[in-house]
Amino acid sequence: MSYLKPLITLNYWFNLNPAPFVPLVWNILGILIILFLIASAVLKYLSYRYRKYPPAHRVFSRLGRAGLWVSVIAIFFYFFNFESLPTLSARFWWALIFIGAVVWKAMILLDTKKRYPLEKKAFLEKKEREKYL
Fold first, then answer.
1. Torsion angle of the four alpha carbons 68, 72, 77, 79, in this order, in degrees rounded to the nearest 10
2. What is the SS3 string spanning 26-78?
3. Burial level of 63, CB count in 10 A (0-12/13-18/19+)?
């Protein structure tokens, strides 16, 4: 467990000239960014597929957009870390990206939990009205 000890020191997170990532961590981070980008592309595809059902389209579109932006920002910081730019390769940016992504997705899901039943009901009522027009 001594390899986890540096993770709880402030010097590890706020060092403006950090040591480069170990190759294993570097590869895992790159794979995770690519998987997150693929997942956001799948969500955007699902939003396209459900475009005739607005409640589901809205949920998939918002989740896909959030994932896409987080992936793009992570790719920039991956590049900055590769180039060893002093300020932009600090470890706290990775923590900030992760925390921001979790909070953003949680806010979307909480909003969906509150709004989805209302939007679904309104959509079904609208479909019922349009059936007779």
1. 140
2. HHHHHHHHHHHHHHHHHHHHHHHHCCCCHHHHHHHHHHHHHHHHHHHHHHHHH
3. buried
User: Is residue 123 classed exposed, middle or buried when 0-12, 13-18 and 19+ CB atoms within 10 A define those classes?
Assistant: middle
- How is residue 123 written in tokens? 């959509």
Q: Comparing C-alpha atoms, which of 64, 61, 41, 63 is closest to residue 53?
A: 61
Residue 15 and residue 91 in contact, taking contact as beta carbons nearer than 8 Å: yes
pLDDT, one tens digit per residue, over 64-88 is 999 999 999 999 989 988 888 877 8
Q: Which residue has the tokens 């950090």?
A: 18
